[in-house]
Each structure stands twice: as C-alpha cells, then as structure tokens.
Write a structure and sequence with these properties.
Layout (H helix, E strand, L loop, with lengths): L4 H12 L8 H9 L4 E4 L8 H9 L3 E5 L3 H14 L7 E4 L5 H12 L5 E4 L1 H4 L2 H8 L3 E6 L19 H8 L4 E5 L4 H10 L6 E4 L7 E7 L3 H11 L4 E5 L3 H13 L4 E4 L5 H12 L5 E4 L12 E6 L6 H8 L9 E7 L1 H11 L4 H19 L4 H8 L13 H4 L4 E3 L1 H13 L6 H9 L4 H5 L16 H13 L3 E4 L5 E4 L1 H8 L5 E3 L14 H6 L7 H18 L3 H4 L2 H10 L4 H4 L7 H21 L20 H9 L4 H7 L4 H13 L7 H7 L2 H13 L6 H8 L5 H16 L1
Parallel strand pairs: 1-6, 1-7, 2-4, 2-5, 3-4, 5-6, 8-13, 9-11, 9-12, 10-11, 12-13
Antiparallel strand pairs: 14-17, 15-16
Helix pairs in contact: 2-3, 14-15, 18-22, 19-21, 24-26, 24-28, 31-35, 33-35, 34-35
Length: 732
Amino acid sequence: MAIEPSILQAKLKQFFGFDTFKADQERVITHLVEGHNAFVLMPTGGGKSLCYQLPALVMEGTAIVISPLIALMKNQVDAIRGFVEENDGIAHFLNSSLSRAQIAEVREDLLKGATKLLYVAPESLTKEENIALLQEVKISFYAVDEAHCISEWGHDFRPEYRKIRSIIDQIQPAPVIALTATATPKVQSDILKNLRIQDATVFKSSFNRPNLYYEVRDKVDPEKDIIRFIRQNPGKSGIIYCLSRKKVEELAQLLAINGIKALPYHAGLDAKTRAENQDKFLMEEIDVIVATIAFGMGIDKPDVRFVIHYDIPKSIEGYYQETGRAGRDGQEGLCITYYSYKDIQKLEKFMQGKPVAEQEIGKQLLGETVAYAESSQCRRKLLLNYFGEDYPQDNCGCCDNCLHPKARFDGQREMALVIELVESLPEHFKIEHIACILAGESNAMIKSYRHDSLELFGAGKDHDTRFWAAVIHQGLILHFLDKDIENYGLIRETDAGLEFLLHPHELMLVEDRTFSDGTDDEDEADTAAMRGGGGGDQVLLAMLKDLRRDVARKLRLQPWIIFSDPSLEDMSILYPVTLDELKNCQGVGEGKARKYGKAFVDLIARYVAENEIERPDDFIVKSVAPKSGNKVYIIQSIDRKLGLEDIAAAKGLDMDDLLGEIEAIVASGTRLDLNYYIDDTLDEEVVDEIYDWFREEAGSDSLEDALNALGSDYEEREIRLVRLKFLCEVAN
C-alpha cells in the first residue's frame, strides 16, 4: 500500500494538529505503510507513538499495539479518541482491568471494523479467546512498544514479551514495528532476533537530549538537599524516583509537611489511589510525584522540569529512560542523582539467590552505573557512548563534570600499559581484573590464573584499582578498547588501541570523583553545612557554646542536657530566631525549646541583626515524627497510670519493645510521668544513684555509655527506666 506524502501530511494536520513531522517520523510511517518491518530507536519525547498511531489511522484493518502498562494504554486510547472525536470505537484497550460488558463492546467494534488501534498487554495476547478473536479481524500491523522488555539485558525485562512472535504467527502475518527509547547494541540485537525481524530497517535517532542537565551528588542528607532544590524551583513539575515503596511514602510525607505539593506513587497503592495521584500530577494539582519505577513509562507530560533519583538506578538504560521524562517539550530539564556506594552494596545484596546468569547480567549493568556515577568525564559523552553513539565535543556545557571540570593529566603511559596488558593476555577479562593486575592487588582469581607472576603485575602500583578502572573506561570511550557484552563485559583491545600502543601521543585523561559511603564526613564545607556537620557559622557556634556553658552552670546541669553539640551546630547553620524555628534543629523538641530556648534564639537574633546575615530559610526542614501505631495508646495509658506490663500485654509487646516505643516517644520531645511505675517497682536508692549519674557524670544521653558505666551494678531495665525519668524531668 502506497500513500502520497501529501496525504500523510494532511492526515498529520487533521488528526494531530502538527504541520510537520519530527526527525525520522515520516520515513518510519512511509516504510510501515508500504508493508515493511521497522525497528525504531527514538529517545523519550522524540514522538515514537505517532510512528504507529498515524499509520493505523490511514491503513486498512486494525493495528495491534502491544504495551506493558495499563495506565499507558488508557492514556493513549483517550488521546486518540480526542483526536478523532466522532468515533470512540476507533481505539480500545484489552487487558485485565475490563469488565465483561466492556470486553463485549471491544469485541463488537473490532468485528465490525470500527477499531483502528487495539492496545493489548502481552499477557492478554496469550489468552486463547483473544487469539481466536483476532484471527477474525484484519490486522494492519503489530507495534511492539517498549520493546527493550524483550531482552534480559534490557532494564525492564519481561518474560511474556519473549512469546510475542509465536502469538503473532498464530494470529496472522502482518508487518511488525518495534519501538523503544533505550537500547544498547546488545539489546537491539536481542529484539530483532526474538521478533524474527532481522530484515527490519533500523531508524535510530540520536540519544542526545541537549536540553537536559545531568548531575550526580554525594548522598549526604539528601532529604534536606531535595527540599532546598524544590524551594529554589517553585511551581515546577518534577518526579523523584526511589527504589523502595517505604522510602516513596516517607519522602512524599516529608515534602508535604514542608509545604511542597507532593504525592506518592507505587505498585503497593490500590489502583484507584494510583490513578488519582497520577491524574493530579498530570492536571498540575500537585507539583511533585515521588515514585518507584512503576511510574512514568509512557507518561505524556511535556513540562516535567526535573527528575531526581533519590537512589541510584540499577542500570544506565533505566537511568536514561527515567531522566528522559524531563524536558520533553525541549525546554529546561534538570536531572539530579544521589549516589552512595552503600546503595550499590544494597542492590548487590538483592541479587543474591537469583540464577547465576541473572546475577552476572545484573552486576555488569550495576557496574556500568557505578562507573557513570563516579566518572569525572562529560556525562553526555558517557551516556551516548553506552548506547553506541559518539559525542564529538569535549565539553557539553550542561553537566556537572563539564561545568566543574577536574584537573587533567597526560595519561599516554597509563593507557599504553592497559592496552599492552590486555593484548598480552591469552584470555579476556573484566575491567576489575585488569585494574587489579596493574595495581598489584592479588585476589583468588588473580592467583588462580597466576597473574600475580606476570611481568606487568603491579606495573602501576603507584595508583589504586579505582584509578586504573577510570583509565580503562576512558579507553572504551576512545575506542582503544572494546567490551564484549555477549560475554559479560570482557575487555579486548581494538585496532585503534594497538595503533596507539605503537605510536603513543599526548592523551589528556581525568581521574574519577570520590564519594562518601553515606556515613563519612565530607571535606566540602557546603555539604557539611547541609547536614549539620560543622560547616556552620563558627563564630556563632562558639558564642552558643559559651551560652550553653553559662546556662548549665546556673542550673547545675551537664551542658549536653541543655542542648547537644549537633543541636548547636544546626543553630549555627539555620539561625533560628523564634522558638518554632528552633524546633527544626536536630534534637530540639517542644519541651526543650520552651524550657531552654529563649536565651539561645535571643542571642541568635542579635547576632543576625548586628552582622546583617541573610537567613537560609530554605534550609529549615520540618521533620516527620517517628511513626508508631501504639504511640497514642501508650501515652494515654501512662496518663491513666496503668502498669507497663499491662500496656505491653494489651499491645502484644514484650517489655523491651515497649521501652523502645516509650524511648522513641520521649526522644520526639513528649514528656511522660513514669514516677508511679518507677516508685512501685524500683528501689529508691537505685533510682537516686542512676539519676545522679546522668545529672553529674554523663557526657550525653547515650544509653550505650550508661550501660558501660553502670551496667555491672544495675540491671539494664533499671537504667532505661531511670534514664527516661531523667530525660522527661530535666532534658525535655
């Protein structure tokens, strides 16, 4: 079937309101209309859906669109019906969410030829009744959307996608178009092979999204940093991705109590809540959606201005697809990712217990993510290289590494050492193995291959394995080395690499960035300041410590009882000038603020006025009180002077668990009167002695310190109860 270009242009205007096609759209559509197979690799926002929607509307028969997400199907069906108002039957979806009456309606419209587009989940496609139905319908073509789901090397592998070709063969032959926004050369090969469309013409658009800014931040106090970032971008639409449902819920709640219009989205919410939250985001009733990766595939919201990854993604494909949801209208898109190696270790732990082949794939994909996060090279260059595309410029001007470049060094000797080693080995090995040989680090695998006896073992021992891994990654980007992804990422030399080895020349390389493990202090003052780690106003901090000492002396208390060091450090950063603001500082509850706070906020107010300090309001973060389903019951029961054993029994807790709940309540600033229970169950002298130790000798409220100092003479439960009494009467 041939259709004149002018007719396609007219239909584009009639149905979609566009005057011109984008990029390869017209070529893809013409190719498909002529009855040929096609493979479309087009980044998010590039207009993939139009490549099958327009042909479906102009061709005879019904196009079957195989799609993985119900929400995506509904969005696209609604959109098509909006384009062609007079016929709601023109587009339908067929999946598990439909009632019998709705399925009957779909069936009727299909059989009478009214439906041009039928969206179907791969699971629904395998049902015998659906195969039988589609055998009675003329199929114009099959569109396999999100085709990366076919490959085990893709970031969202779905086994049911592997069965698509056999189902197509059962229904009836017709052209196939496979579409995805993210596919490495390996994934592309898997898709073409599995769908048996090796003859397909490949339409590959550039992966470069020049309007996106990429940044990786050290994951130190990310919640505070995220709140500050959103406040600096008021009213802008954004998505925050977390790996766990629990973190999604916690972060959405934290944003909400800090005045940010945010809602959660994850597969654990009921379908109605998920749909409502998604619609509120699309309709701009909220600014931010906090989500797991269950959210976003196919979400057509062009003005998402930022995508934040609270947790590092499991693969570069996943990262690229999720960041691709920012700036689909070609305008600003900020992509911020928080990275800590502790998160990588957590992800590696999750892989344990999976089949060995799956673990190997997962580890390799994760390794690529680590290399990307820790690299000091242009992030755009790294991303495009991963997808088999070269980025010719040295500085993209739109990523953290290009805007704040690290010093470079002439690495011709180092690169030559790498290539010489790779070329000399009879077998091929992974990056880590090669880096260990050069750094002279022996391990079981090095010993098993006797590589610790190689001439080049330790040839680069003045650098560590991280350094050598960075050199190897840059060798891959320069095409001096190649990675065999079919064999789990084994490294081999290229002709260009051997040429460099023969004729080395100046080669400017850069060392990777270093990150904390999520617990260590950072050198950078602004990062430390963000989390209250000593980066505040040192003059004010000294004044606050003097004031604390004076107050403690007057009240004959240990200084920590008034305010802890972290509390004073927060005050030196946040400059609170009211008691309400003071409560935002670490370890300052309602009671402590009222009891000791006035002198401190008065001092800070004077200091701010005298020094004309502009207070960083965006740093003040309200925290969520620790959640406890038993909290209200425990407080009410203690007010009624019930025995702790009775309270524990009523809630199915043992005494240690109950004390833990009470300690959490007291730590959040609530004052409880436990004297009725302590007087009945503990010896008066024991109470006095423990109480006096906390008052006179304790350096902090640490239970561990108390147990070490007092444990041999007193039972742990006695110490915990008296500590609670002391905290309620004095510290709170």
